Amino acid sequence: MPDNKPKNQINIELGEDQVEGTYANLAMITHSHAEFIIDFIKMMPGMPKAKVKSRVILTPQHAKRLLRALKENINKYESMHGSIETPEGPEGLPPFHLGGPTAQA
C-alpha cells in the first residue's frame, strides 16, 4: 500500500506545560548580527514592574519566516473578523527604555 503522507510532514508534540499557553501583552525585540531575541512580557495596570514570561531566540532567517507567517495570518483573521485596531501614540508604546535596538510591540 503506498504511503500517502506528505514527505516533509513534521510530527509536533504539545506538552502539558505548554497546552495552556502563556499570556503576554507586550513583546520587546532586540537583535544581534546572528539572532533575534523576542521577550514576551506581561504588564499589569498600575504596576511599575513587568515580568518576562517567555524568551524566544531566532535566527534572522526564522525571524523573517515568522514575520511572513504573522502577516499571512493577520490578513486571514482580518478578512474574517474585520480590521484589528491598534493604538497610536504614547499609549501604544512601553513606558520604559531598556537600551539596545528599538523594540517593537
Offer a few descriptive terms.
three-stranded antiparallel beta sheet; 105 residues; 25% helix
Description of the molecule:
Strands 1-2-3 form a 3-stranded antiparallel sheet. It is 25% helix and 20% strand. The chain has helices at residues 16-19, 60-81, and strands spanning 26-31, 36-42, 51-58. It is α+β, with helices and mostly antiparallel strands. The protein has 2 helices and 3 strands.
List the SSEs and their pairings.
Blueprint: H1 16-19, E1 26-31, E2 36-42, E3 51-58, H2 60-81
Antiparallel strand pairs: 1-2, 2-3
Report the β-strand fraction as a percent range: 15-25%
- Number of DSSP strand runs: 3
Based on secondary structure, the structural category is: alpha+beta
Characterize the biggest β-sheet.
3 strands, antiparallel
Which stretches are poorly predicted, pLDDT < 50 over at least 5 residues? 96-100
Shape: extended
Concise description?
The chain has 105 residues and is α+β, with helices and mostly antiparallel strands.
